[in-house]
Amino acid sequence: MGECIIEIPNLRIDYFKSELADKASIVFIFSPSLNRELAGNLYGGGFFNRLGYHVISIKRSIDDWWQGISNEVLGKIDSFLISQELEKFKRIGYGSSMGGYGAILFSNQLKFDECILFSPQYSIAENFDTRWGSIATKINWKNGISSEKLRSSCKYTFLCDKYDLDRLHIDKYIQLIRKCKSKSITYYSYGGGHPLSNILAEAGVLKETIELLLSGHFTAFDQRLLRHNSITYRINIASKAINKKKYNQALKALTFKKDNFSLTPEWYHLASICYEKLGDLNKSADYAAKASSLDGKNGFLAYRAAFLYAACQNSDQALCFFGKATLIDFNTNSKYPHIRMQAMNELKALLNKQQYN
Asked: What's the pTM?
């Protein structure tokens, strides 16, 4: 059972004591973006407790990259630690994506000795990476990463996909850390995507990775384990190959030996792209149809299946998926706002053609 340190709108901070408590250490866990839960020992808290670490669980239910956290809130954490005689314990910041950003942002004020960071952003408001640009414009920025936010005696451990845009964020952190004369170490994976913690969890190696990091025995990622145990890994590798127009290589990544996964809409979509580019339209259409069937709210997938069946002269299936596409209610945030009208026009054309067949 946790003890609430502070709860205000969109923020709750709890203390969870480890009954083992043999580490004389506290892990401060910062929630990632898209978190909407404020109660509980989330994002690995129970795992850290079982390892013997006390946990300060810091949960934000809005995606503001920790801009709403005041010095008063941070002061309450310090006051609580003093009241529990925990102020001299080793402090470890931990987080993924926005959570990693938070751990770094407050690493100096909360006196962290170490930070374990999966794919943390350096900034979401700069042009070098616009993935979160629409969110960044809605945030009232008060706090950003700067040399004053870093603690010279803290060791910052970064883990990310070497070939993802995340690498640009880590490079900027490393430059800043060098100027501050802090310590850092980076471990790169290939095919992990953002955030890397997700694919490690999917492959069943996240907990082992964290244990090795905490003990100082982690050396490198086992790419073979990721390849065998994560469908997301294969999808990421295939996507990179498709971007380079290496379609046979992409199919090889998708269909690696020993498949024991539940295949996803994205897997079928990428396979469909490969077969289309390689000239097998029938197989491409069937894979597109499977992707659409698994994701019934995605109008783009429905339209793509219809288009491919039309190209194969399979008018019955084309009509089926054109009809499906027109029924999907696209909102103003849709990435493909033109599809509904295009699908309706294609459907009319097919119906007119069928009248004369």
From this structure: 0.87
